[in-house]
Amino acid sequence: MVDVSRTEELDAELESGGRSWPALTAFTDLGFRKSTAQHVVPLLYGLVIAGAVVLYLAGAVVAFELSALLGAFWLVLAGPVTCVALVLVARVVLESLSAFMAMGRQVDELNELVLEIAELMIGVSDKIDVIPTLPSFGRGGRSRRRAAIMDMRDRIVARRATAGTAE
């Protein structure tokens, strides 16, 4: 479910005319209330590219101070290969980080869906009369399943209570 209630962040964005920069707000969120890492990844990638350019130029200066041949080698072969390798490794690491964050969000969404389905199933199971079954001979059977359902019900009640207090 999507929460469309007004929040302080939305109010601040409306007051600024919608021109807020999420990467900047990521650094000012000292309470870690919102995951803004997805907005910081492009900033980090830009910093890596800028660092690679500075490394290339500094390496060229150092190489030319040592010898002209070494400087030419750095400019033509070693410098570009080093910079491209650095940027590629940073890109792979940042994309992996983004993928892990996306999987985490999907797991959270799936958890919410499971809780909603369990809530619906509990509503259905409360309307059905108990059907006597044979004992399961020590494997827990219905009592273990019922305990799991009651545990899920406790989670749903707690989630609703926290959602009620958050509003």
What does this structure look like?
With 167 residues, the protein is mainly α. It has a domain at 9-102. The chain is 78% helix and 0% strand. The protein contains five helices and no strands. It has helices at residues 8-15, 22-28, 37-66, 68-127, 141-166. Helix 2 (22-28) crosses helix 3 (37-66), helix 3 runs antiparallel to helix 4 (68-127) and helix 4 (68-127) crosses helix 5 (141-166). The longest helix has 60 residues, at 68-127. The two termini are 15 Å apart. The model is unreliable at 1-5 (pLDDT under 50).
Question: Quick one: biggest sheet?
Answer: none
Radius of gyration: 28 Å
Low-pLDDT regions: 1-5
* Share of β-strand residues: under 5%
Q: Which whole number gives the mean pLDDT? A: 77
Count of extended strands: 0
What shape does the CA trace take?
Answer: elongated
- State the helical fraction: over 70%
The first-to-last residue Cα distance is 15 Å
Return the string of H and E elements. Answer: HHHHH
Number of helices: 5
Overall structural class, as computed from helix and strand content, comes to: mainly alpha
